[in-house]
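Let's study my pick:
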Amino acid sequence: MAWKDLAIAGRILRKSPAFTVTAALTIALGVGASTAIFSVTNAVLLQPLPYREPGRLVIASNELRRRNVSDLPFSNADFIDLREGTKTLFDDFAGVFSFRNVVPREDGTPEQISTAIVTTNFFRTTGARILLGRDFTQEDGIPQPPAPPPSAQGTAPARLPQVAILSYEYFQRRYGGNAAVLGHSMLSTDRPGPIIVGVLAPGFRLYFPPQANMEAAPDLWIANRLDYDAANRNSFSIWPVGRLKEGASLQRVQSAADAVAAEGRKNVPIDQTAGYYIDVDPMQRYLVAEVRPAILALMGSVIFLLLIACANVANLLLVRASLREREFAVRAAIGASRWRLIRPLLTEAFLLAAAGTLVGLGLAWAGIYELRTLAPANLPRLENIRIDGFVLGYTALAGLAAAAIFGIAPAWRASRPQLMDVLRGSSRTSGLASGAVLRNLVVMAEVALSFVLLIGSGLMFRSFLELQQIDPGFDAHNLLTFQIVGAPLSKPTPEGRAAVVHQIEERLQAIPGVQNVTASYPFPLTGDFSPIRWGTEEALKDASRFQATDFQIVLPGYFETMHTPLLAGRTFTDDDNLPGRNRVIIDQFLAKKAFPGQSAVGKRILIRIRTPQPEWVEVVGVVAHQRTTSLAVAGREQVYFTNAFLGSGAARSWAIRTGNDDAGYENQVRAAIKEIDSHLLVTEMAPAEFLMHQAQSGTRFSLLLISVFAVIAGTLAGVGLYGVLATAVRQRTSEIGVRMALGAERGDIIRLVVLQGLRLSAIGIGVGAVAAFGLARVISAMLVGVKPADPATFASMTVVFLAISSLASWLPARRAAGLDPTTALREQ
């Protein structure tokens, strides 16, 4: 019987191709959009991390509450204190940090690789598999013997060799998969390289949020010869990763970590004055904390879109069911059960849903490709976004749910015909009179849901406009950025490193068209910043008055090259870039905080960066604030040091200001650097405008998707409103004929229909505005410079939707006004 119902439903749908195609495509849009976004939700939020029993893995971070600093890694001593203080709750407790460095190839040319330093139990903690050779052993992590004091006589103890494991990808790329490298040292320019003892299985990655500044796929893994360095608790580098014991709850671990932090605040002065606390989070939750609100907002948007599509199709089916009401009444009169009346309509609904789901799956497949292209850089696990079995299951459920949502109401309505009224009716459109209230309710729901999406789109658009107006603190136009790394910049003496830097400056400045050359570390909008302590004289009396600031190492001419405005004093000169010159430049935020209502130029502040205790430095200038990580967030205040302040060679992020398009300078820069020294390597070359583009990517991604969904939703709502009014016009044909026969003008008829449409829209907009007011707070974390209840957005979107409603109402109104009264009266 089921196959017979399918065959009959198929024949009925084939007889109405326009209806069938319209309904199927409407469902395809809803299912396709929701499937594409669900693939992102699945890959980023739902799929477990590719580690052994990932639900038991946690990450610890520390925060300095009195300095408003959070999400910091640990120093060696703090890591060991935490490991020892919580060891009864963990099966394993490991640590990792990573960086990029340059190593020589066999032919002597430099190669930049990413390196991770891990405790010897790291791979056992995460469940990584060793493909060749062996894993690290405890002996590989024995601390180096302490260096003798400078006054000591005799030979210094021999340093223990570094022990390394290669990633499978680097093993293939560098050594061609030759297992003979196991047991041998890698090449190094000035000391024995690490001994290779193993190769990881393919595909192993580190999953950390962007603020951790971790390399996702290190080429080289080196065993950490970790020692307890209590004197250097300011050096934050290690990210702890722990595997909970069976039955150990996160609450117990957090309590134990709180006790460790409290002990630190009690016994370690810097922990007490900084307000040292420890946070422990499940690894997956910590990874997605930054992007979770945006993904959930997008998922909510596509669910709304799917509901709107279902409402649209439900209205179409309600009209079809109304037109067939006499048929259903006759069937009921001769004894058909309610289920026998419902079954054909439900079968049609499921056929439409199946067709729409298949087409939607194709749309989703194409959409996922575009999503990967448009996705922001901070979206973790981007490579995992795909249509897998779980996503296919969601698509099937979405299709079934859609069929149920848009199929049940028309089927239920058709199964309860008023027999006497229907059979007594003689008009060809008499069936349309029934179900009008239900159709109106459905279209009002469409309008309400669409209005919520329009409000979300409007808020994101306002945010994007605000983002365009934010001054990053520098001029990105005609500014080419790149890094220069290599052994020459690591010469053993500051004078040697300074000479190489000066040579690079001269050669780059000599390139025709280059106006200015500079270098810094870190570079704005890269997110590589880390905090240091600063204070005024008050901090000498009360160490808790020390606060946090980001620092940057720059060459003289940096602010001129970057076009960063000088607000007071002067910028750095070559004289400042000499050893022993304790001079700094601060930004306007730090100047206002350190010396409110005063000029900061000529004053001193305490800075802790190169000595165990803070030292005095003189402020020679105040500049505009530069954005460090994101255009959306101002970030901490900043202090600038000269390259010589930390021994030269630290400023490795270079920039050249050109007089025209900087795209043609890439080859010239590479050639100039190679002429200086073949061991210098130019990497990560990109226009500064690309950094600006990346800094806007998160907002642009959400704006684009929500706007697309809102446009589709608004269109579907407009089509739904048009359908309801067109049906109403057909239903009221005789009434309109009477009105026209009694002297009603064309404008009166148009006004009658348009006002009906606007009334439905106004009710839907009112309901949608209330819902949007509450739901807009969900995306508040994604907004920049705009409040969730922004009156301008609500007002403008209301106008937009009323315009859509007016157009959707005018089309059937024009048809009604063009009726011939004689023809209309014959309907009666």
